[in-house]
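>> received
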Amino acid sequence: MYGAVVCPRCRKGFAVDLERRTSSCPHCGRRIQVRRMKTHFTSESASLTAQAVRELNRRGRRLKVDQGPRERVLPMSPSRIETLVQDLGEFDQDELEAALGGRTAMEAEEILRRVLQMGLVYEVSPGRYRKA
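>> returned
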């Protein structure tokens, strides 16, 4: 299992293996204890975690400039996900991102992975999904 964390010294995001006790920041070299770090994203997929780190670093730099109020995005409960899938019918990842409104592409990809695992949707053609 991988996680996206932020270094307490240099404030840059990086990926860690959550099964290890310690890790080093690739930017400044600081040694950290993994269990004490706030994990901003977790996944079994290294590529999804890498996307999360990129998003975390991009968002972190923007937040220093833009400190205005942010719109609150409600968590996606299983019932909300099921309703969303029923409303969409047949869709691709871009349509799912648009329907989720205010969520990142990374979150849309994670939701898509979850609905595929739960059997709520199936892939009709490469990149196209339909309610099961």
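>> The first helix runs from residue 46 to 65.
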